[in-house]
Amino acid sequence: MSDSRTVQDKHEWRFFRAGGFDQVRIESGDDLLALAQLDQKLWVALSCPAHGIEFDAQTLAQIDGDNDGHIRATEIIAAVQWAAALLKDADLLVQGGDTLPLSAINDTGAEGRCLLAAARRILDSLGKPQADAISVADTADSGKLVLEMRFNGDGIITPKASDDAALQAVVADIMECCGSLPDRSGESGVSGEIVEQFFSGAQACAAWLQKAEADSVICFLGADTLAAAEAYRAGPRAAAPLSRSVEDYQQLAAQELSAGAAGLSAFPLAVVANDQPLPLQAGINPAWMSKIRMLREKVVVPIFGDRPSLPADDWETLAGKFAALENWLAEKPATPAEKLGIERIRTILDGNYRAAIEELIARDKAMEAEVEAIAAVGKLLHYCRDLHTLANNFVSFRNFYTGSGKAVFQAGTLYLDGRSCELCVRVEDINKHAALANLSRVCLVYCECARMGGKEKMTIAAAFTAGDSDQLMVGRNGVFYDRKGQDWDATIVRILEHPISIRQAFWAPYKRVGKMIGEQIQKLAAARSQAAEEKLVKAALAPGQKPEAAKPAPAPFDMGKFAGIFAAIGLAVGALGTAVASVLTGLLGLKWWQLPFALLGLLLVVSGPAMLIAWFKLKQRNLGPILDANGWAVNARAKINIPFGTALTAIAKLPEGADRSLIDPFAEKKHLWPYYVSFLLLVCGVAWAVWYFGYAGK
Hints:
Elements: E1 15-18, E2 21-24, H1 29-33, E3 45-49, H2 57-63, E4 70-72, H3 73-85, H4 92-95, E5 99-101, H5 110-125, E6 133-135, H6 142-147, H7 165-178, E7 181-182, E8 188-189, H8 192-213, H9 225-234, H10 246-253, E9 278-279, H11 289-304, E10 309-310, H12 312-330, H13 342-350, H14 353-366, H15 368-391, H16 398-402, E11 412-416, E12 419-421, E13 424-427, H17 430-437, E14 443-451, E15 456-464, E16 477-482, E17 487-496, H18 502-540, H19 559-588, H20 595-619, H21 624-628, E18 633-634, H22 642-648, E19 649-651, H23 673-692
Antiparallel strand pairs: 1-2, 3-4, 3-18, 5-6, 7-8, 9-10, 11-12, 11-16, 12-19, 13-15, 14-15, 14-17, 16-17
Helix pairs in contact: 3-15, 5-15, 7-8, 8-13, 9-11, 18-20
């Protein structure tokens, strides 16, 4: 056969019509490969969320190349092309299945050969070296295989990358000084950049110290130079503080003086006088005593010998000797390796550890292709199993409209009010979803679902597309079965009212009138009952009981005030009578065979407008807003017409061939008197009509 990875210039497409629009058939590997050429205006969807749909989450994550949480047309095309390039026959992408023969992998290219070797390595790790096929289940723990590898291709090594304890200690020192990065295994390690940062700093620090050690001008006291520099810095490097006022000394005299006395360090080192040398033993401010002693021992004695004081000329000599040292200290490089100390730094630099660590990092990077190939084996198997299904729920909605399987956006089935609803979608935010989904013209019932005693919860929107909404009300309970067959307690929390069926629209006017009449009768009965109860209470009062305080007498009936009301009632009754008389006149003027048509026309006059409005709305039902509210980008007017809506919501009916008994032992007994009354009223009406229209005298 010709190479299926090369798509012909003109692919022969086939379409089917469903939902009021044309949808592409995807039935072969060539169809999948040709998706790159199919005008995206013909795609049913251009984007779908990578979560919240009934599809393998790992496959969606692998397709979502930019990790933005959405699957787009370009990503599906890229997934198809990548998978087809690694297969000898692209038709394997439409056959599905969890198993792929090793012989089906295209090993003519470097990537294919690496992937085939990785598949065999996975099988070897599972103890199946002789297997000729690999399954999705075999790759489930391929991540564990990578974790067990000492080198996993990410360019980061942990201390465990070497068995040499000394080298492990150096890696740990580098992590302590310069930080670390997480390895694929989850442990901390170092990368080439971190190693470079550490050794560059360590070499700079070592070179800086070596400069001082080789220069006698800088280290004029040898190994004691740095200690002397500390004493020199702590000592009186500037001119002695000026004398304080007499009042200051008087306040100080009242205190018990010690080296730690508050404010004492702000006074001069010694008594200020012209041309007086700095005392080094006696007459020193107690606050400065320890620093002066250190200056004498570390600096003055080694250079000038033991003496009780230091003249100004000798102080200038000291400043000159420390100038080179101060310049060297100012050149000290800022490096995190300094915390290890010069001895540890020199040990690391002299031990050739850098080359050893860089060699380990290079070995780790060399495994990158093999590690990626191990992950690619699982990716290819997921694509072979799932890509065709996704295409038939994205490029077309074949699964949804043909009933060949549930669509990926169908979360399960809701059983409520004697019906089962197949179009149920998950919802994160009811208010946000309802704002857009209301444009679908579909009667949506939002239900909060819970299972395992409320530990697991979710919200769904179920489409009721057959029957009526008479018994749909907030608070009603049902049962929701998810795609795994798990049952959830479902409670209605919100309803988007829209027509469900023409039959419902036909009876709607009569139900409204009946409801209104029933409410009025209930109000009238309640008022009569309350009046009767008040009379009984008054009659039950004892004769000797003190009567209640006299109530003001009601205002006299104002005939003039209510004349208009009486007139309006009379006009209404007269108009109603005239209308009834006109109807009866028209009916009695018809022949007997015309009466059924007249009654049918009367029903249409009453129910026709409601049915017509419902018909138009049912024709406008659209799946798009329901999915768009969940993050989809539906690219077609995916209609839910009346026949398809009837298929989405099944109404309870007895099984075919079931034995049904019509005897109900608890049925209400039927009385004949309503029929007698109705017959009497009919006779009276006909007699009145005969008399009224003068037929009796003819």
